[in-house]
Amino acid sequence: MALKKVPPFIPLRIRSDSKLITEGFTTHLKSWENRGWINVANATKLQEIAARLRARSAPTWFKWVKGHSDDIGNDGADVLAKAGALNQEQPELPMPTELGGFLKKGMSLVKLTQKLAYQGVKAWKKTPKRKKTEIMVGRIQATIRDEWGTNVNAKKLWKSIRHPDMRRTLRDFWWKATHDALRIGLYWKNIPGYEHRELCSHCNVTESLEHIMLECDAPGQKTIWEAVKYITRKKEIEPWTMSLGTLLATPAMNSWSKSNKGSKWDTRLIKIVVTESAHLIWKIRCERVIERSGEPESYHTIQEIRNRWEDAINKRLRLDQDLAHPRIKRGRIEPKIVHATWKGVLKDEAALPDEWFTIKGVLVGKPRHWLRQDAG
């Protein structure tokens, strides 16, 4: 606003509580231009400000002031900014064409890297929105809003999939599931010679991820979710009702408990167990359908499924133990986090030493009804 109102031949002093402004145009402007403004927040507005500054013949000074510090000018600017934000009737005007000559075009070849070039291609070549992805993301967001009473934007949802607690294999599966891009169900409907794959070979209904994870009567999902319930009971957590939206929202959740009971480390454990369990259900389904041709006599036995689940969770426990070792530099987890995460679910936990994370052979306990059945 000041750049528009003050004539270009009059010296101008700008006081702002935004370091993006005060430091951006005094320190970072050259860097922004060298990278072609790629991944610079609010790049369009900042480019216009840069052009207007260069169009001035008189000098301009910037000074940072602390926000909400009873500075009359700064407080007045906040009032005007709020009023402008509430005024939805004024459309945002493009930068005047005569200012374009004051901006550098493209990016610096000296500063160009392969990563920056790829980011530029992504920024300049807009990817069309995928309808299936929008529907699935909307479904997950609706579940988070209805079940947890909070809103999670799509960016945070995608970012949660890349969290360090998600193994790389799980990230790939979750990414495809959130895009609704797994090759199941209706994917096969119009492919000649493969139409039969549209149906679940066991239930004879159209196969979907929801059916595989929560509804299919073939051995697998029921046994595995029973084991997950055992973990939530051990942690004294009353879990949310499981649905496809709840399942896919797991990496982004803040609490798995309806009453918000339990620490953030309890939530970390539930995230780990739920994501590992869901991926195991998917693997067992693929083995049954592809490797074992969907023949009932070749199905996984209940004992085999239980063993697979124990092995998956114990491998994840060992990964936490390895990442807590002092020799790990990048991606290391503090031992206290490992202790807090797995506390209450380990086998013979009372007999373990304080530094059990350094000992091989530490295991997650079995569900009690499994032990009774094994003994019988």
Describe the structure.
The protein is an all-alpha fold. Helix content is 50%, strand content 3%. The protein is built from 16 helices and 2 strands. The longest helix is centred in the C-terminal third of the chain and has 28 residues, at 264-291.
Number of helices: 16
Order of helices and strands: HEHHHEHHHHHHHHHHHH
* Beta-strand percent range: under 5%
Q: How many β-strand runs?
A: 2
| Uncertain parts | none
Principal-axes geometry comes out as elongated
| Helix percentage range | 40-55%
- Read across the widest sheet, the strand sequence of neighbours is 1-2
Distance between the termini: 80 Å
Q: Helix/strand-derived class?
A: mainly alpha
Q: Mean pLDDT score, rounded?
A: 87
Gyration radius over CA: 28 Å
Largest sheet: 2 strands, parallel
SSE blueprint:
Layout (H helix, E strand, L loop, with lengths): L1 H4 L6 E5 L2 H4 L1 H11 L8 H13 L4 E5 L7 H15 L27 H11 L6 H18 L5 H8 L6 H11 L30 H7 L5 H14 L9 H6 L14 H28 L10 H22 L11 H8 L25 H8 L1
Parallel strand pairs: 1-2
Helix pairs in contact: 11-13, 13-14, 13-15
Keywords:
single chain, 376 residues, mainly alpha, 2 strands, 3% strand, elongated
Concise overview:
By secondary structure, the protein is mainly α. The chain has helices spanning 2-5, 19-22, 24-34, 43-55, 72-86, 114-124, 131-148, 154-161, 168-178, 209-215, 221-234, 244-249, 264-291, 302-323, 335-342, 368-375, and strands at 12-16, 60-64. It has a two-stranded parallel sheet with strand order 1-2.
